[in-house]
């Protein structure tokens, strides 16, 4: 059986492709090999994989993940082999998952807007051009982390509207020192920052929040999307919770930069399943 996984830094969506088209969908936490070791991933999988599934029958795993660049694939491969010793592992970037789910075998532009950001041009088979998003410290414009960072910065510097500041305190009871400690002293600060995008969405009708999100998407286009050659000839296709949740505002910015609106998906897993259902059986040799 095939096991398909699409992993961001926060959440992994899985599908166990069982016989007769009966598929089992489930989720675990995200497994970015830049932030987690093989041992940490194994411990998490042991706790979070569904026990009722026939996972011992998995012989082929297609894992698409944030941070799964060539130099980091071994981290995931080692972890998966510990849990699924008989399976052949095929590990790719989550960006390829986005392109396959959004475009199938057609060429075009694909983006991820979730906890982090990534973008590419795709020729229907492979990624042909990728401009580095630079991660959450230097870049990731338009992501949940970028939106959360801006919100937290405005809160700490006391420049957000008073009514939003009062709502923030009532919900989180975080002082500026609490936030600084969380970001600079604990693991996965990108997840911490991105978590506040939910608060932004709760108050999105407020002019301040709408502008915060709009400016995040403008920064995405100014610093990343517009750097692709002839970017305006493509439709803007996007997967991820941020792009999907704020698609009305994102569409405004897409039109501002004279791209066509394409497909917006919250998660690519169903598109990936359809893509792999159409594929022939993969040769039985392990691959990194």
Automatic annotation (TrEMBL):
Full protein name: N-acetylglucosamine kinase
CDD domains: ASKHA_NBD_PG1100-like
PANTHER family xref list: N-ACETYL-D-GLUCOSAMINE KINASE (PTHR43190:SF3)
Superkingdom in the source lineage: Bacteria
Gene3D superfamilies referenced in this protein's UniProt entry, alphabetically: 1.10.720.160, 3.30.420.40
Lineage: Bacteria, Pseudomonadati, Bacteroidota, Chitinophagia, Chitinophagales
Statement: the UniProt record of this protein carries the keyword Transmembrane: no
SUPFAM superfamilies per record: Actin-like ATPase domain
UniProt keyword Transferase present: yes
GO MF annotation, one: kinase activity
Keywords: Kinase, Transferase
